[in-house]
Give the backbone structure.
Amino acid sequence: MEDDELESPDIEYEARDDDDDDDDVIIDNDGEDDDLFHLRLRVTTLSDENRRMRRKVSSQVQQIRKLGLRLEELQREIERSDQGRRALALIELELETEIYRLNDDLVSSRSQSAMELRRLREAVDRLRLERDCLVRRTAVMEARVRHLEARLGRKGGCGGENVVEEEEGKGFLGFPWRITASLVGAVVVVVFAVVFLQSSKEKQR
């Protein structure tokens, strides 16, 4: 662009004819030769045009430099935009990976919770069976005790009372059967409370 302006300046000069008649306007040159005067005048005109052209070229060069700086700034903005898009893509990938990991953890936690709940239910079922067995045994032993009391009551005497106490002392772990039944009932209640709390926690999750 700069070379084009230098090679083909948009300058218009007045056409001058050295063979004009003497009737043309005569420029007062103070006795200087006409050709020399016209040459000097042309050089002055060309110098002025050259200065104007230089100023114009300088202005255009500054404009080109500004455009170059603007182009570099745009390129940097494009690079920053590309970096931002790449960073955003990495963040999206990390988020997707984290979501998959959390989903896997949730599925695994649910599976473990289901297994634990199943084991607790099986334990409760076993405790219920043991409780039923103890209740039946307790009922049998109470029937025997009542039968013995009835027989001893007919006989009377201190010896009979000692026999009753001796029979009642043969309960579970050395405790009377009535106390054993009460302990078993308390254990069952505690187990049911634990299972209920566990199921409530699972529902909250």
Notes: Residues 1-28, 157-168 have pLDDT under 50 and may be disordered. The helical segments are 2-7, 34-155, 158-168, 177-204. The two ends are 73 Å apart (CA to CA). Residues 2-204 form one domain.
